[in-house]
Hints:
Heme binds at residue 177. GO terms for molecular function: heme binding; iron ion binding; oxidoreductase activity, acting on paired donors, with incorporation or reduction of molecular oxygen, reduced flavin or flavoprotein as one donor, and incorporation of one atom of oxygen. Its cofactor is heme. The protein is mostly helical. The protein folds into 2 domains: 1-40; 42-197, CATH 1.10.630.10. It has helices at 4-17, 27-41, 43-58, 60-73, 88-101, 134-137, 180-197; strands at residues 110-111, 116-118, 121-123, 128-129. The relative contact order is 0.16. Protoporphyrin IX containing FE (HEM) binds at residues 36-37, 40-41, 44-45, 48, 103-104, 107-108, 169-171, 175-179, 182-183.
Amino acid sequence: CRGLVDCFLIVKQKEEDSCVLDTHYNEENLTFTVSNLFAAGTDTTAATLRWGLLLMAKYPHIQEQVHEELSRVVGSRQVCVDDRKNLPYTDAVIHETQRLANIAPMSVPHQTSQDVTFKGYFIKKGTIVFPLLTSVLYDESEWESPHTFNPSHFLDKKGQFVRRDAFMPFSAGRRMCLGEGLAKMELFLFFTSLIQRFRFTPPPGITEDELDLTPAVGFTTP
Ligand code: HEM
């Protein structure tokens, strides 16, 4: 069994052999599952990484601090997942990038499966609901400076990494992002490997102040 598709096909075969009718393991679901994984798992991580590099170009003193921490803790060997716990500043920069980049501002639409009253509002069964992640990621009662890039949002006074409940780029609840662990691992490994080897700067003739952080409109925020 080499991966998801093999696993799926093996169960499909078993169910066919035991004459299970009405199975979820059919070709249509296989196609949807694989295409969903591509759609949900490629542009999201790539857009976040691009935001990370743009922010490093705009704030060179922060890029320098990430570089210093990486040189001190990892040196020139390849970064591995286990290094993250020893790189609190870098970890905070990646979290702050995800918060400010806010790449899935409306998460994905859900639909109420029954009538529900939420915070005094009646929502009828079958209503489409968009959970606005922006409202949490930029919540003024949660973040000291919601609209600025500030890695201290994820650091305590001693410079140790702190988790924040309002960090919700992967949404929340039962249907939250299935790829959170994979995405975090990818972002950490790609971001650190790039900063270890390169310096990111604005193009010639452009100052850091001129780098524009206005997001473009898209399903994710490019
Ligand atoms: C920075 C990267 C990513 C972000 C910010 C992100 C964000 C999200 C968000 C906001 C949702 C909607 C959750 C909800 O319905 O409430 C979601 C769903 C999902 N994500 Fe991600 N995602 C990322 C990367 C990935 C990766 C790498 C994969 C897998 C390869 C993935 C797979 C999925 C899947 C399968 C769902 C649907 C889950 C379901 O409906 O039960 N995501 N993601």
